Amino acid sequence: MSFPLATAQMSLDSLVAEFFQRSEGKWKSERRYFTLKSGEVQEVESLLTVEFLEKGSEELIQLAHVHELSDETALVCGVKTSWESTYRGPSQKQLTGSTVFGTLGDLLYRDRGFATSKPVTAKFSFPEAKTMRLRTEYGGSVFEEEIKLIGSDYRTRQTIISRAGEEQMIGQYFEKRTE
Q: Which of the two ends of the chain, N or C, has the fewest CB atoms closer than 10 A to its terminal CB?
């Protein structure tokens, strides 16, 4: 009875590891955030660096500790993403930062969220091998994201942010590998 579950889990672990490995590298990200009620549009250009993290890496051990997981080597794999962003439009600013992601089962653990510096988790799935879907909930908001690999040099992402059951913002991203 546990064999099919174990096989399905191994398949999910393999999918996420392959997806993260294919995402490794340097990317130029062009984004637009649409605030639905006001019509405001925020444009952002980012340079991203994505590093694949293997099970047992120091970053994943620290992430497991932050999430108070009993086994600090439980996270199957992950990525560290660093960015340098330039915001244009209504909120002009420059930001740099990084975040660490790790997976266990169908949960993605993060050291911080999109709108919080606190650790968060997201449920993830793969409707197909090149497309990862995430659903994150915290602070009364829901973040639904889809990341799609297109060939070896492109990715698209879309994020829908809702609060109290009403969509507030849509983020659309076009990313091109630079290295």
A: N
